[in-house]
From TrEMBL:
Protein name: BMP family ABC transporter substrate-binding protein
Entry keyword set: Cell membrane, Lipoprotein, Membrane, Signal
Signal peptide: 1-25
Residues passing through the membrane, by range: none
Cross-referenced SUPFAM superfamilies: Periplasmic binding protein-like I
Domain ABC transporter substrate-binding protein PnrA-like positions: 35-329
Major subcellular location class: membrane
Organism: Propionigenium maris DSM 9537
Membrane topology: Lipid-anchor
Length: 330
């Protein structure tokens, strides 16, 4: 069904450019650039990675007057076909979301040398690919410091989608930040795993309760759509708090999500789309950290009073030290 939706969407765009394109060109004097995005599994509504990516291109569509379409694959096996579909349909930029896109994009990109591609959280060394990476350790260090200051048990938790080096960078930064402010801290880590690690809220809720039963009172979830299970767990347990990831999840359970480590996929995609429109988009690796506007904490909208001005000032000071280089998150 999703392939049919994509096909119909592409067909409508081709019909538009074939039939109504002359009128558009007469009105604006220029052709709209087309951007297609293949989301990661879990799709929209994850309040995390995919939602952030979508928000960035929606903003780019409004500000740069581009055509924008997206597709939500049901499984990893569909990634390559959807990337190929967009490129074959003549899209100017095809965006691949997530590290699992690396292998499919390596196969597709060389077949379309005149099409520009961008991939988030992976490196594809092709002359027509922009690889977008984030210094997630910096943001995880920040939220780890929040957890280290706020825990009442000196025990905090981490839930990852799978146990792999890329995701463990989040865990490592989180541990380092917690230890930076609280030398007595213990961090317990569990992983969702299974056949759909980034879209299994039931398993993430089970792991959240297991961590709670082992004294963890704050849990950082880095598991895409599975993280909804963590949010459900904190909503049902008065003495359990969450830290969100990728998008601002603070409002999902007001007052129970201390902060969110915002990996600003939205800002990165907005930036490279602007470069595309200006004819300045180049291939290669782009790294977005706190200093580059690619990483931040959320605004503590619902937890300012709970955390308190003194701790918030310490968190701000840590951020400034990271930007200046005084604190280096290795």
């Amino acid at each position: 069904m999703k392939k049919l939706v994509l096909f119909l969407g592409v067909l409508m765009i081709l019909m538009f450019t074939g039939c109504g394109g002359k009128k558009e060109a007469a009105d604006t004097g220029e052709k709209k650039l087309k951007v297609g995005m293949v989301l990661s599994t879990g799709g929209l509504g994850d309040k995390s990675f995919n939602d952030s990516a979508y928000a960035g291109l929606v903003r780019a569509k409004e500000d740069y007057n581009i055509e924008f379409n997206y597709v939500e694959p049901a499984s990893i096996s569909e990634f390559g076909q959807f990337l190929d579909d967009y490129a074959a349909a003549g899209y100017d930029l095809v965006v691949a979301i997530g590290f699992n896109m690396e292998s499919p994009l390596k196969e597709v990109a060389p077949n379309y040398p005149d099409t520009k591609f961008a991939v988030v959280d992976a490196v594809v060394d092709e002359p027509n690919v922009t690889s977008i990476l984030f210094n997630s350790k910096e943001g995880s260090f920040m939220v780890g410091a929040v957890a280290g200051m706020m825990t009442k048990t000196d025990t905090i938790g981490y839930i990852g989608g799978i146990d792999m080096s890329f995701l463990n960078e989040f865990r490592d930064g989180y541990v380092a930040g917690a230890e930076y402010v609280n030398p007595n801290i213990e961090v317990r880590s569990l992983y969702v795993g299974g056949s759909n690690p980034f879209n299994d809220p039931a398993k993430a809720k089970e792991l959240s309760l297991a961590l709670k039963n082992n004294d963890a009172d704050i849990i950082y979830g880095v598991a895409g759509g599975s993280g909804l299970g963590l949010l459900e767990a904190v909503s049902e347990n008065e003495d359990l708090y969450a830290i969100g990831v990728d998008s601002d999840q603070d409002g999902a359970v007001e007052g129970k999500v201390l902060t969110s480590m915002m990996k600003r996929v939205d800002n990165s995609l907005y930036t490279i789309t602007g470069e595309l429109v200006e004819g300045k988009l180049e291939n290669g690796v782009r790294m977005f950290g706190i200093k580059e506007g690619g990483i931040s904490t959320s605004e503590f909208k619902f937890t300012k009073d709970l955390i308190g001005e003194e701790k918030l000032a310490k968190i701000k000071a840590i951020e400034e030290k990271i930007i200046s280089g005084e604190v280096v998150v290795k």
